[in-house]
Amino acid sequence: MIDRALAVALAQRALKHLHEGTTDQAQDVMRVPVSDYLDEGLWHDEVDRVFKRVPLMAALTAELPGPGDYKALDLMGVPVLLSRGRDGEARAFLNVCRHRGAQLCPAGTGTRHRFRCPYHAWVYDDRGALVAVHRPGTFGEVDAAEFGLRPLPVAERYGFVWVRLSGDEPLDLDAWIGEEYGEELAQLDLGSWHVYEQRELPGPGWKVAYDGYLENYHVQALHRTTFAPTNTSNLMVVDAFGPHQRILYPSKSLAALKDQPQSEWDPAEHCGAVYTFFPNVSMAGTWDGHAVVSQILPGETPERSRTIQTVLTREPCESEAERCYMAEFSELLRRGVLEEDYRTGAQVQAALGSTANTHFTFGRNELALQHHHRYLKRALTLEPGEPELRLRHLVDTAPTAD
Ligand code: FES
Ligand SMILES: [Fe+2]
Fold first, then answer.
1. Domain 56-170, CATH number (from 3.30.70.240, 3.40.640.10, 2.40.10.220, 2.102.10.10)
2. To pair with 242 at 20 to 30 A between CA atoms, which of 12, 132, 322, 389?
3. Residues with CB under 6 A from ligand 1
């Protein structure tokens, strides 16, 4: 759990809004051209110039906690293999055999110290080194040192494994996340949490899908039976850390704090904190010991995305009561996102070309959405080869409204 004084200060800001019927706001409304959601060239630029150039969260530490644990996944057409060696270090490689390019293992997680290619049985170890060539006497000379798996820049921090899909320079995650945000994330201790369930949800274009994670203005109308019974709507406490944001979505039970002395407050009970990682991750929950991490990835076309939704618990889920609670929590998230957010998102996506709107309007109350889109725009202006860390600088000096 984060520092108590910070949690109390955030709960105080939320409580004030609750009393006054207000929310954090941007200076102005912001207009984004609908063509930004439709333009195929822009979508390719977002994939190539943003997603493939910034540190991307690829897995949770909890998905590959022990030596020999691995995860294989596709990130926008790039086959990635994460492997934790016997030395405990998480490494990342292209999941592609160096002989004639077969993918070494299918998407998923497991435990292996050896990866045997399904095509001609070359074998790699958990550090990506080529350790065996099938029938070497017939194949000819192979210098194993030159045929290791292609490594990707990787870092493991705050309970996540991060990769960058282009470039060779080391991944400076501390600089990307920043000191203040990093300290808070470290306090959550997510590296020791446990995966309860993971699923992949098909959704509309990645921007339509991700926009819905950045505001709770829609909770009352869209999530009437799922999230609205317990969560406030249109009440956000937002803080930005470079391109990343912490958004507090308080529970309705927050009102109870009014009658309690502050020394007795338990902010975790009344505040849902969402931590975002630019450009595509939202992590909700965490303060009260259960969480959902959503990785929104561009799909095969601009109209489609895929979301890896991972439900986590701080403690292993052992008792029957906990299992029941988590089953309900997990199902609520699946249903709320797939049947409400993404069903509506699919309708938005289908009507983008209707010409009803030339622009979408982000309200002053949708300030996290504004911040994200402003950053995305800046990220697209980086020249190829320009280090992604410039992005922090660009955003730090970005004006607050366009
Ligand atoms: S492609 Fe992997 S061994 Fe031939
Ligand atoms: Fe939603």
1. 2.102.10.10
2. 12
3. 97, 99-102, 117, 119-122
